[in-house]
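Bench log. Compound arrived from synthesis this morning; before running ITC I wanted a structural hypothesis for how beta-D-glucopyranose sits in the protein. Inputs:
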Amino acid sequence: MRTMRAITLAPGVADSARLDEVGEPPVAEGSVLVRTTALGVCGTDHEILSGLYGSAPPGEERLILGHESLGVVMEAPPDSGLRTGDHVVGIVRRPDPVPCMACASGEWDMCRNGLYTERGIKERHGFGSEFFRLEPDFAVKVDPALGLTAVLTEPASIVAKAWDHVDRIGRRSRSWQPRSLLVTGAGPIGLLAAMMGAQRRLDLHVLDRHASGPKPQLVRELGGHVYSDVSALAGLSFDVVMECTAATPLIAQAIAHCAPAGIVCLLGVSIPGQKAEFDIGGLNRTLVLSNQVVFGSVNANRGHYEMAATALAAADRPWLDRLVTRSVPLSRWHQALRTQPDDIKVVIDFREELSSG
Ligand code: BGC
């Protein structure tokens, strides 16, 4: 059996990640064979690495990590719409087998019964191996001109879905025309939300704890205002608020700064049990009297990946390049998993490192 290197871990066991030699992906995982270019690391990966989240495929003890992929097609069936050499990103979620009404209609991101699976997260191996396989319907072609920044397609798909749902909710009112956007948190998701807000020509405001450094600079280059202290937002309200920190105090602030008829989208996944005093009666009164909506959003369907690819292709390339703050070769993979203060997106670069197999 031909083997390849893969970053694996035992879900539920903290610090169990290692670089393993595993068998090449079975054809059952898809007819499209992809050679990995790069893998992005995100907060969910850190949670999985700490043993707090994630599960291995049934009957297996270890999970191949990674859901933010980028690779080059090595083999694809003639009717797949893909060719050798195409740059592709893998879709993370697979529909539940029942399937529920949402999964049956290609909206696995809205799965109703929780039986979905996710590459590198829930019961399916991820993309953190030298090769991976995809079903043609779960491979998204990306512009080769994006280079390594195409690894941002998956996080951008999450943001594209959030915008898609803001638009759909906004259509409840014929006069809805958002003008201002507040983003809380200038990590990769927050910056991509800000980038798409700037593409929509919204008046952009970003709250982040960093007062200086690359994050506020990137926001300013989008024409946005930066706040490092929530008190500076006093008296301001915004048509759309995208909460990307999952930090308890900021979730309350995000809602407090929503304008009448405005929409708050919660994008961060918080750790349960962080209790704080909260005026639920006051929240209800404001939501009702001001027709506000607070909604949560997770994952993305194929349409959102395509929207993400379009948004990235329309972005300023040098700006996008600066979102990828560290690129670490596979042989030093563990360095990529250790966070550093000015990190935005850290990627593991699989190029020039192929083992002979
Ligand atoms: C991924 C999503 C996934 C979610 C929950 C996120 O990091 O980007 O695709 O649905 O984690 O598992």
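What the model suggests: The mean pLDDT is 96. The radius of gyration is 20 Å.
ITC booked for Thursday regardless.
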